Protein: YhgE/Pip C-terminal domain
Amino acid sequence: MKMIFNHIKEDFMRLKDNSIVLVVVLGVSLIPCLYAWFNIAASWDPYTETAGIRVAIANEDEGYTPAFVPARVNIGEKIKLNLGVNDQMDWTFTDKDEAIAGVKSGKYYAAIVIPADFSQKMFSFLSPEAEAPSLLYYGNEKKNAIAPKVTGKGAGAVTDMVKETFTKTLYATSFDSILSFSDQVRASNEDDVLATLRERLQKTSNSLSGQISTLRAFQSLARSSSNVMATADGFMEISSDTVTGAMHDLKSGRENLKQTEASLAPLNDALKQSVDQNLDYLDRLSSDVDDAFVRADDNMAQSIAATESLVQTLTQDVEDKRHVQDKLTEFNEALPAPLTGLDAANAKIERSIAFEESMISTLRTATEKKNLTREEADALQEKFASLQKKNRENLEALRGDFSNGVMGRFARVKSDLDETRGNLEDAWQSADAATAQVAALSADIQNDLGRLNANMDASVQLLDNAKRSVDGLYSRTMEVENAPESEKLDRLLAQDSDTVSRFLSRPVQTAVHRVYPVENYGSAMAAFYSTLSLWVGAVIQVALIHVETPDSYRKKYGKFKPYQTYFGRLGLFLFISFVQSSLIALGDLYFLGIQCPHPFHFLLAGWVSGFIFTILIYTLTISFGDIGKALCVVLMVVQVAGSGGTFPIDVAPPFFRRIYPFLPFVHSMNAMKEAIGGFYKNTFWRELLLLQNYLAGALLLGLVLRKPVMRLNTAFSEKLEDTKIM
Structure:
């Protein structure tokens, strides 16, 4: 130990006695400080100092007038207005040609061109040919490595601004329309508005129900048609005998129709005669009734007797008509297919019976009331005359309908049967030639019917969904009047459109919770540059200061053993390292003013890191000489790239990610970051402890493994000196 202390004492005595050496040592101590301070100061807060980056803006937007916006919208102009008050960058407004030329020449870092159809494309989402608009971004990537990233972020900010501006414009216009509608609703009776809305929804629902029923009927028809077409081929193969039999059946049907017509003719004559008699009777009845009502003033008894006689006559006529009804019904039921004309005739007879029963009721009213006034008699007479007139019109219609409708239809059916028989004979002659064509057509039709059925199924489903939606809206209108939501809607509509559109354009805000906040970029980079400066300081030491013991020391104190030489000169290196790390840390804290809530721990991390780096570099140099110095530089370069000081190690190439945990820089930086950003558990002490692994390795190399290579290192140094160059 005495030899080690003698070595250290001799080193410091020579520093004291030689002012030039003292100045050199002072310079060795200051150079790493300057390296750290200049780099930290230069990168103090670059991302908040982007106001000097010139970015050209060229607006060629011509604007657009959407169908639902009552004004022309120019998104490009809105962008210019917003950028005019934005100081994040030096926005320069110019034309497209000047902007692009300025980017190429380096006048501008980047340029953003707003195309002429920008606003139009922004609203193209309303049309089937929707096309997203684009901002044209031109960046000069040659001028600076980081500037394109910064200007790219600026372009992204402009894009976000466009989205927000467009959304605000769209929502503001829509909300103004809603407010206008709301004002109209409030100006009118709200209950009437809701009632009208419910009525229209009900009509829509009924209409949809009708359309669904129609489609389902068509589906049934299509399925039936498909079945018919499936048997069409078999029908085309019926024999000639079958066709002949069909024509025979037509002939028999015609004979049966002729017989039916003959049977119906007397009934027609009888009905016509009965109607004519009724019409004559109605004429006489009108005269008798008038006489009865006239005699009501003179001779009430005679008037009543005449009226009762009329009632009996009308009653008998009603019974006769019911008898005719029964005959017509019996005849119609006996037919193979009932005739609608006979049903219509029966309906008119029933209407005539109803008129006559009303006439009977009127006459009975007159007979039951003994003392009729003139006014009452006139009213009853007028009512009776009206019923009689309607009955006459009904009977005349009955006579015409039966003669022209029923009997005329028999004649037409008979003629149609004759024509059908002739057509059937003609069709049979060409049926053989058409059989093949019909078979092919049948297959096509069946395929079409299949597709039609599928489409109608989908249509029915869509209409069902639409009807459910309409019914749901109808139900909501029944609830909305007293619902709490309506009060909320009223409060919403009380807001102005700017407030609502501003919220809807940016409905989500990010609540930032900064974990271990760091005030500025310089403070964040202080750990990296300070660690790098400590390594640089140690490299400068071995470059300027000899690591071997001078011969004068041996003459004065005797021979030094290898470990005594190792520790003897190491004392001077550690002293200079202490000065370097102290100046670097104190300058960071109090000259630059970095953020550091734990300054002592920052100093401690600097001291420990400086000692470890110095011992490691000193050991490599004393063990391998100039080769060791070169290894120190290589290690520095590798650690600058692979320690994650400037970029996250996760974005580095795989090689650097693999060696990352084994680099001294990593643990030194992590310890300093704990002091700068704040402690997490025992991370600070753990990182300092991990640094001791390099101390153990350096001591193992310097005290044990150095001996075998000492002779090789001496020979290598002699060869270099023989060149007189190195």
In short: The chain has a mean pLDDT of 74. The chain is about 80% helix and 5% strand. The longest helix spans residues 374-480.
